Structure formats: C-alpha cells, structure tokens
Amino acid sequence: MIMSFFDQFLSPSLIGIPLIALAILIPWLAFPTPTSRWLNNRLITLQAWFINRFIYQLMQPMNFGGHKWAVLFTALMLFLISINLLGLLPYTFTPTTQLSLNMAFALPLWFTTVLIGMLNQPTIALGHLLPEGTPTPLVPILIIIETISLFIRPLALGVRLTANLTAGHLLMQLIATAAFVLLTIMPTVALLTSLILFLLTILEVAVAMIQAYVFVLLLSLYLQENV
C-alpha cells in the first residue's frame, strides 16, 4: 500500500480508539517532580532558570492584574514545547499539527482576554475598534475592519502553529525520502542530502520551541490590551 506524506498527521488509533489523548498526556510524565533535596540537579536548576526568565519577560509589561495568568501561560508554553519536541522523534505523533487542538487552546483563551476587557474596561476595549483621529467617513469601514481583525486573532494563532509544524514535518519527510532513494543511485548526493536533513532537524527543534513561545507571547499581548 502506498503511503501518503500526509498520513503522518492522521490521529493514531488502536482498535478504533483514538490515541491523541495519550499523546497529549505523555509529555506531562517528562516533567521533573519536586523533591525534598536541598540541592537540585542541573536539569531542574536549568528548568527553573528558564521558567523564571520566561515569566519575567512575559509579565514585565503588564500591570498587577495580568500577573494572575503567569502560571497558566508558563504551563501552556512548557506543554506546547514538550509536545512539539516529542513530535520530532521517529514514529511519534505531534498533536499540535491538528488545527482542532490548536484552536481548542487559542479560542477559549482569546475569548477570555476579550471578556476581561469588556468587563473591566469596556470603553477602552471598544476604543480599540476605532483609532483616534479617524475621519468621519471612514468610521464605519474601520470599525468593520477592526472587528474582523479582532475575530481573526484566534484563527491566526491556531493556523500559525499548525502551518509551521506541518510544513517542517513535511519538509523533513521529503528530504529523508530523497536521501533514502538516492542512497543506492548516488551515494555522494545522498550523503549531502542527509547532512541537509540533519541541519533541518536542528532548525525544527528551534522552530518547535519558538512557535510555542510565540503562541503564548501573542496571548499575553492580547491580555495586555485588556487589563
């Protein structure tokens, strides 16, 4: 049976039962658990430093009301990074290549930030729909444009994460297939292709972490507008 390049993005199943829930829960097992030791090992120390720097950079522009989201944003970013990195391993499934999962993260969080703005400061929240100094004839058009751009935000969050990871996985599979086919025909070209694949894999590791950070960063910017 000929396998399609897009078959790697199908949700795995066992006896007709989808295993996407298992793929989502497994990354939590990789997180180090708290211990009663006075001194931490290098991994826990590095993780604590990374989390502290991330929270500092994310929460610095916000007022005190936005600091309540620090734990949620940190957990979400660690979760997305873990899923994205584990999805680069062979014979694994990346749940974040599914637009439905990314929208399930983006839509409720975006809606919550908008709801907070409408409840706490409705005048300022609605004022974002009309820039100051707009000519009177352009007021209806700009309100429509800004409203559309507001509702496109969660879709852009989900599509950005899905598209970047999907494109990277497809490119890696295409280059790996080319290297395998050229191995017996042109070994030198196959070696160069394998080198490109290795460099691309390093790039995809960086992309997996950056996209998780961008996802949470944009959510924090949306929250900053409404607190």
Structural summary, described in words:
With 227 residues, this protein is an all-alpha fold. The chain has one domain (7-30, 61-226). The chain is built from 7 helices and 2 strands; from the N terminus they run E-E-H-H-H-H-H-H-H. The protein has helices at 20-29, 42-59, 70-86, 99-120, 122-127, 139-182, 187-224, and strands at residues 13-14, 17-18. A two-stranded antiparallel sheet has the order 1-2. A hairpin with a 2-residue loop joins strand 1 and strand 2. The longest helix is centred in the C-terminal third of the chain and has 44 residues, at 139-182. The model has no long low-confidence stretch (mean pLDDT 83). It is found in: Mitochondrion inner membrane. Keywords: ATP synthesis, CF(0), Hydrogen ion transport, Ion transport, Membrane, Mitochondrion, Mitochondrion inner membrane, Transmembrane, Transmembrane helix, Transport. It catalyses: H(+)(in) = H(+)(out).
**Tally of discrete structural domains:** 1
Uncertain parts: none
Structural class: mainly alpha
Roughly how many Å apart are the termini?
55 Å
Overall mean pLDDT score?
A: 83
Q: Which geometry do the CA atoms define? A: globular
Question: What string, H for helix and E for strand, traces the elements in order?
Answer: EEHHHHHHH
Helix content: 55-70%
Main sheet makeup? 2 strands, antiparallel
List the helices and strands and how they pair.
Layout: E1 13-14, E2 17-18, H1 20-29, H2 42-59, H3 70-86, H4 99-120, H5 122-127, H6 139-182, H7 187-224
Protein name: ATP synthase subunit a
Membrane topology: Multi-pass membrane protein
Main location: mitochondrion
